[in-house]
Amino acid sequence: MSRKPRITSKGTCALCKSTFDKSGMTKHLQSCMKKNSIDFSSAEGESPSLRFYHLVVEGHHLPEYWMHLKISSQARFGDLDGFLREVWVECCGHLSAFYIEREEIGMNRKFAHVLQPEMKLSYEYDFGSTTELTLKVVSEFKSDTKTAEVEMLARNDPPQIKCSYCNNRATRICTECSYEGTGWLCDGCVEDHECGEDMLLPVVNSPRTGVCGYVG
Ligand SMILES: [Zn+2]
Ligand SMILES: [Zn+2]
Ligand SMILES: [Zn+2]
Ligand SMILES: [Zn+2]
Questions:
Q1: Residue 167 — φ and ψ, nearest 5°?
Q2: Closest-CA residue to 135 (of 94, 83, 203, 204)
């Protein structure tokens, strides 16, 4: 029951701007981060302000949307919430929450007090038309450069989504038809679509494409 045709997912490393398959990005980042003075061997016992986690976030049931993040061990879940809203999900100020095995984690908690390598978490934005994300802690490491609380390491390139009615690339989605798994529209087919302009949202690089009023 996929909403879209399967596509090989590629993404771009924010550190060196090279493109890799989704499956190769973790490995690439580990070597690319090393070149950027990030050390995986010695996080233990280091000053907390220089400790970071490598996190992978992806759309639940929408794995073609993914990001690799570097987050400070001293940052809080609320910082990550703000980042995810800004980059991926914010439409009209809905509620959101992080969970570990269905247990909600307070937005004020520090990552250092919660996260462990290999840990899996989930995130929900909007408890009505929910966008659900899954998060995985890849590793904990030390870096000599203190940066933002949450920093992008890599992100998927915009998926090439085909129009539901022809072979061209979709640029809009009809929110009326998207419940049936159709409604992806190219510039040409938009003209003939009967649901009306009000139902259309732009196709954007986010797992919230076509949901609520999300326009990127
Ligand atoms: Zn790189
Ligand atoms: Zn909304
Ligand atoms: Zn079309
Ligand atoms: Zn429609």
A1: -95, 5
A2: 83
CA of 182 to the centre of ligand 4 (A): 8
Instruction: Give the residue from 148, 149, 190 showing the smallest Cα distance to 166.
Output: 190
- β-bridge partners, 162: 169
Q: What is the spatial distance between Cα 112 and Cα 3, in angstroms, rounded to a whole number?
A: 37
Q: How far apart, in whole angstroms, are the C-alpha atoms of residue 89 and residue 129? A: 11
pTM equals 0.90
pLDDT in tens, 112-122: 999 999 999 99
Distance 44 CA to ligand 4 centre (A): 54
- CA of 183 relative to ligand 4 center, distance in Å: 5
- Establish how many alpha carbons lie within 13 A of residue 11's alpha carbon, considering only the half-sphere containing its beta carbon: 25
